[in-house]
Amino acid sequence: MATLTDLPRELRQKILLAAVQQEDQLVGSTWPQTITTLLRVCKTLRRDMPWVLNTWSPQRWLQRPSDLTTLPTSLTIDGVACGPFASKPLHTLRISIFHDALPANIRKADWAMSRAEVLHPELIDAWNAFVPQLPVDESVRPTVLLDVTPAPGWMCAGGHVCELNALLLDDRTARIFMSWQVDGIADLVLRIHRHYAGNVDVKLTGALAVKSSQFVAGVVHRLLWNNGIRIHFVGEYVDPARAGLGMIRHAVQRLAPKKKTAEVEDWARALRLAPLRRVEWSKKSIKLFDRACDGASVEAVTDDLREVAELMVDEQRTRVEMPPSGNAHRAMVHSVAQDMGLLTASEGEGENRYVVITKKSL
């Protein structure tokens, strides 16, 4: 049976190139695992790799400005030089604007802040200062993708879907924090456009809450009307209705974590609320909780869940009155409380209507 090494060299190299092209992003100074693995297979494949690597044109992903200077420069394989990659024509560049952002800082956003207090201005300032270092090749019209996901890199890397969704959908992130970034991102796009003398396609990408569409519209309109530059958002909007169990699961994880970490402010309370992890949430509660998070701060909705959970676990308490709220929010409170085995009723009139939660009689 024929193996890869038995194939004609030209065909073999194309197969290797197809495998290497699965690594479509070159991040920092680390060689992708696919390449390092192929180099160790056998001498035949090693001799094919110089052509493969010189043909390979990955998307360069910059998580911080210094990444451009730390890209793998060249590689010598059995005396044959590959690269230098840093000087290769730039076809696609992805810039992660908020890779080093702190979630706590993002959540501090408040409408009362002045423009001088805009959170994390140093990140956009650093990218603005970095623009002159971008490589220019007049024979290539590059595409620059600005990833405007308002979350740190570790949260976007995977395995943190609940935390990421909660941060993106938080009203302070989606509306306030992102609204403060309109001018900074628009200025960055304009600077990149001028650096390439207009011979560039700049696009916004990443993950945003639906409520952050106002930020996108602000950037698009400012660039179009002030500078005649057309720009589009090619990322994805995170819809709470599609977040499934993510939001309520995240809330439970925050209120009753299984392990004690530095982020747990009150471990005694977390232990007390441990029964919350055993509640089986109905589809109705999941849907209503997501809608509530979309209409208000995730923190506020989580606080309401905590209040109901405190009643569930406290043997001394028999009743709690929730603050007045709208129909949708009250429906969520009714549903999650009933999932916890509690009784609910609404009292009051109009804007003062609220939910009363009591325990079932033995």
Automatic annotation (TrEMBL):
Descriptive protein name: R3H domain-containing protein
Q: In Gene Ontology terms, what is one molecular function of this protein?
A: nucleic acid binding
Q: Which Gene3D superfamilies match?
A: R3H-like domain
Query: What lineage is on file?
Result: Eukaryota, Fungi, Dikarya, Ascomycota, Pezizomycotina
Q: Which InterPro entries match?
A: R3H_dom, R3H_dom_sf
Organism (species): Lasiodiplodia hormozganensis
Occurrences of domain R3H (ranges):
299-361
Q: Where is the signal peptide?
A: none
Kindly name one Pfam family recorded for this protein. R3H
Which superkingdom?
A: Eukaryota
